[in-house]
Amino acid sequence: MTRIIGGTAGGRRLEVPSGRETRPTSDRVREAIFSVLESRDVLDGVAVLDAYAGSGALGLEAASRGAASVVCVESHRPTARLIERNAKSLGLPVDVVAATVADFAGRETRRFGLILADPPYPMTEPVLAADLASLAGVAEPGALLVVERSSRSPEPTWPAGVEVEVGRRYGETTVWLAWAAYVNEVLG
């Protein structure tokens, strides 16, 4: 069972995709991520991008906990519709875009202060590196990037202008925190 952990929709259940297409972030890892975000006062009033949204659990959690706006990007159209249903049933204002991360970032004009990226674990490192470079292009200066990967995967290859703070391991998952310190000046 996947549920929203905190905020206005805390305790409410989420519908999750069936099959092996997605791997929702566990409650334990999600709670750890959001504890860090709240302790740093990153969430309140921030524009959030949930890349590779899957069930939308990360983006919906952010919306429940006070984000100003949330965009969930999911390339699998039926799963994108599932996120829309979850958002509607929870009463959370979340925009859902059915597109690849690269396509979304290539045409998006909005900028985000928090980018949550939970790519499929089988995604290759070169593809992830290219997507992270695309995501850096939609980051506000000073934005926080949170990247979730398998603990068996190497550290992601970060684009220029992104400063890695830490990688924290939670069993089979490692969560990387990085700051887009001056990325928009570098990528222009």
TrEMBL record:
A GO molecular function held by the record: methyltransferase activity
Top-level taxon: Bacteria
PROSITE patterns linked: N6_MTASE (PS00092)
Pfam family, one: Cons_hypoth95
GO biological process: rRNA methylation
CDD domains: AdoMet_MTases (cd02440)
NCBIfam families, alphabetized: 16S rRNA (guanine(966)-N(2))-methyltransferase RsmD
Record protein name field: Putative methyltransferase
